Structure formats: C-alpha cells, structure tokens
Amino acid sequence: MKKMKKILVLIIMAGLGGCIYDQFNDQLTVTNKTNRKVSVLYSSDLGVDTTKNNVAFYIDDRNVLMPDSTLRYSTWGGERAWHQYIEEGKRKRLFFAFFETETLKKYEHSYTMNQMMDYKLYFKLESYTADELDKMGWNVVVRESKIPTPTAE
C-alpha cells in the first residue's frame, strides 16, 4: 500500500511539473551584436510596467546582455503567450528600449526607468508586431547605433 501511495504521488508530481513547465513561454531572445553591455526594457506599450520600474532590475548581472551574447526572455502563459502580451498593448507591438548598462548605472540613484524612457536615455528604440517576430524566429538582434548614447545633462 505504501508503494502505491509513493507511485501515485510521483505521477501527480510529474503531471503538475509538466503543467507548470507548459505555462511559461521563453521563445523570445535578444542577441547583442554591439560592443556594449546592454540592458533591455521590453513592453507591449511605451510605458514601463511599474513592477519593473526599478533600475536595479536592469543592471543586475543576470539581466545584462554582454557583447556577442543572447538572453532568453520568459512570460507566463502557453504557446501563444507572447502573441497575447503584444495584443494587449494599444499599438499591438512589442517595444524594445536598449540601454547601455553604464548609462543606467550612472543615473540609477537619480531616475526611475519611466524617467529614463521619458528622457530618452536609451541608445536605440525598436518595435515589432507578432507577425514580424514570427518571421524573425522571435530573435531580436541589437546592432550598434550610429547615434551616441544620450545623456540627461
């Protein structure tokens, strides 16, 4: 009887584990083809989600995109979670603001991410529809911009 309970518990745990895994969609990747350390803010609108308004989140080592590297981004939901996230936005686009990590560090104690967006302290701003991202294989490549990194001064 104990053996049956253990087997039943293992089956339930395996089933739940599979369900939890299926709830995340991590198909979105960003590849850094610049010579800078890059921090990426993405949003289905140009505003910043208040839960991610803290600059410290973007300069944390696990969120910094090193030169010639790729980071994977996850969202809660199933296979079409990113599509749904984009559709929820007013413009039906996924926006990416690319910041030089050093710029964020410089202004970390002076501004929030909303203010950094307002002051256009990113070095590049791009947006894509879900169809465009499908064609790109959900891999956004940030390349060097000819425009120098702006400052708030």
Plain-language structure description:
With 153 residues, the protein is α+β, with helices and mostly antiparallel strands. It has one domain. The protein contains 6 helices and 7 strands. A 4-stranded antiparallel sheet has the order 3-2-5-6. A 3-stranded mixed sheet has the order 4-1-7. The protein is globular, with a radius of gyration of 19 Å. About 3% of the residues have low confidence.
Please supply descriptive tags for the structure shown above:
single chain, 153 residues, alpha+beta, four-stranded antiparallel β-sheet, three-stranded mixed β-sheet, 7 strands
Strand pairing plus helix content: what structural class? Answer: alpha+beta
In N-to-C order, the SSE pattern is HEEHEEHEHHEHE
Pick out the low-confidence regions: 17-21
Q: What general outline do the C-alpha atoms trace?
A: globular
Based on CA atoms alone, the radius of gyration comes out at: 19 Å
Beta-strand residue percentage: 25-35%
Number of domains: 1
Please give the share of residues in helix. Answer: 25-40%
Q: Write down the overall mean pLDDT.
A: 85
> How many DSSP-defined strands?
7
Sheet with the most strands: spatial strand order:
3-2-5-6
C-alpha end-to-end distance = 73 Å
Oligomer: single chain
